[in-house]
Amino acid sequence: MRIKLLVSIIVFFCNNTFYPKSKEVVFNTTSSFVLQNDSLSQNYKSAKVFFEKEDYANALREAQKIVEVGSSYSSEELVLTNYLIANIFYSTKSYDNAIKYYKKTLDLVQQLKDVEFKSEAEINFDKDFIKAEAYLNFGNSYYQLYNKDYLQKHKDSALFFYDKVDDFFSSKNNVLEVKSRAYSNSSVIYLNDTLFDKARDYAMKAIQIHRNQNNKVNEAGALVNLSNIYLSENNFKKAKETYYEALDLIRNEKSSKALIVREKIYFNLAYNLYKLKDYQAYFYQELSYNIKDSLREQEVRGIIEELDAQYDFKSAKKLLLKEEENKRLKAQRTFWVIGIGGFIIILSLLYWLNLYKLRQKNLGLQLSQNQLILNQNIEKIKSESQVRILNATIDGKESERKDIAETLHDSVSALLSSANLHLQATRSQFKGDHPIEIDKTQEIITEASQKIRDLSHTLVSSVLLKFGLKYAVKDMADKYSNSQLKFETEVGKVRRYHQSFEIKVYNIIQEFLNNILKHSKAENATIKLNEENSKLIFVISDDGVGFDKSKISDKDGLGLNQIDARIQVMNGRFHINSSVNNGTTIEVELPILEKPNHV
Fold first, then answer.
1. How many angstroms separate the CA atoms of 88 and 56, rounded?
2. Long-range contacts of 462-465 (CB under 8 A, 24+ apart)
3. Which whole-number Å values give the CA distances from 467 to 347, 402, 490, 491, 595, in the listed order?
4. Is the entire prediction scored with pTM above 0.70?
5. Closest-CA residue to 595 (of 492, 459, 500, 470)
6. Distance (Å, rounded) from C-alpha 472 to C-alpha 502?
7. Which of 295, 429, 453, 547 is most buried (CB neighbours < 10 A)?
8. DSSP string computed for 31-72
């Protein structure tokens, strides 16, 4: 199961096959044709623009207008439109509908002549490429259904259509590229079924195509696929050699795709070196984490820029910045008031001390004793004043952060929900048809709300960096809880630690919670976190179906061994207590890595 997880991740980033992003689907779709824009209808142009903007509802609406009329459009445009609709359903994970329209696309292509030609509509077709890519996406849709229901017939259908791609005898680069993706997908399926010889054969076919086309990034991804097969066979030395070969291919590549592939190579290589007991495992694991953190920061910045470009939140930003500035000035005034007050108290004490000394000049010994007591009191007052000033400053900053977070979460989200309700009420006032602008506005508001939720989800790491493990774990438990599964937290003595240590602990806990969501079928789960004797201890338990620990290596072992490897590198201890139908309890103990002291 661990090998399946690694391979699926690599295939996703390197081949864009099982889970293609919508923009990549657009690239694959338009690459099938050489289009003359003036030969296409306005409906298709609008649908294509909406699709590229990920506005799938409007894209589908415009495309359906062409399909409903049908005979009024050229055969070439009907092929384009049906293929676009299939990609829309695939991008929205409506795989049954995607399969229906991929079939329509193939039926329409079959009705065309067998040779490449230039039609009266001035649209150039490459039939081999269209058919090959449609068959590939056919197989992808069935494999997605298999990932949902685990029905054998869906997996068999996926392999059937991947074999259909393999049946094409074409030397064209674009068709060979489609074949390479089909080979990689078939390799993954056979690897999951522990048919290692078949998995290796298909992986080698994909590697050879990328090598012939001099596509180093894709070749590196395919080599990682092959390395994972060696890894599943416990051939760690061969896996290591293949990982290094993949790394050498893209060492000088600067593209974002190469960066993603390099991060996955580092991560898998770290685990492979750990199995070989090579001390460099920790080094490559750190490289993987650094790249992953940079990619996450880029993703968050992209989401923020997209929201700003689409929905113009500049006025809201200015208001938040103004409020933040006011709070900063208020905290500054508080600081000066406390400081001046403390200074006045000190001056007053010094004055009374001098007066007391003048009056008690003849009491030498008593004066010395009293002077010592007063000096001690003065130092105590100074220390307490500094503590109060420092606490006031820290409290002010934390309050500012909390207010900003609450404004984004409560105010913006609440305003969007309120606007949606008003539009719903407006819709009900119309008898019969209502203006289409109401539907479009509601769709925009719904999309904006989803973007806010997605942005909130991606800021979990920000919560960790700003507030530490205590708040990050509680925030994670709240977000993961739902009507079927409730996460509770019991956080004891937990403070701030070295930043890299906190990130690693957070990621470990997150992986355990993901396993509970996917596999446990539990109704309740508890996260206990505490510091004892310079060690951070956390216990995660659930009341789910549990599992037989003796069968870990057969099914779910890779994910748990990855976590175990990560804990071993951190010199920690990891223990699982579980049995069938008796829930699961996980205990982890990690030596604390303290925050560095800066002078």
1. 6
2. 462/300, 464/502, 464/503, 464/506, 465/499, 465/502
3. 38, 10, 17, 14, 14
4. no
5. 500
6. 10
7. 547
8. TTEE--GGGS-HHHHHHHHHHHTT-HHHHHHHHHHHHHH-TT
User: pLDDT tens across 228-284, in order?
Assistant: 898 888 888 888 888 888 888 888 888 888 888 888 888 888 888 888 888 787 787
Q: What angle do CA 147, 151, 153 make, to 5 degrees?
A: 115
Distance from the first to the final alpha carbon of the chain: 48
Alpha-carbon distance 144 to 348, whole Å?
A: 78
Q: 3-state DSSP call for residue 125? A: strand
Among 288, 243, 260, CA closest to 14: 260
Tell me the C-alpha to C-alpha distance, in Å, between residue 186 and each of 13, 156, 180, 210, 599: 16, 11, 10, 16, 57
Long-range contacts of 339-344, Cβ-Cβ distance < 8 Å, separation of 24 or more? 339/385, 339/389, 342/381, 342/382, 342/385, 342/389
Q: What tokens appear for 375 in the block?
A: 């000096």
**What is the pairing mode between strands 486-491 and 535-542?**
unpaired
The answer to whether the CB of 452 falls within 8 A of the CB of 310 is no
The residues, ordered by sequence, that sit 6+ positions from 233 with a Cβ below 8 Å of its Cβ are 196
Distance (Å, whole) CA 230 – CA 247: 16
Cα Rg of the chain (Å, integer): 31
324: tokens are 């933040």
Which DSSP state fits 83? H
Which residue in the block uniquely carries the two structure tokens 């690694």? 6
499, 503, 505, 507: CA torsion to nearest 10 = 180
Do 265 and 229 contact (CB within 8 A), yes or no? no
* Tokens linked to 201: 């054969």
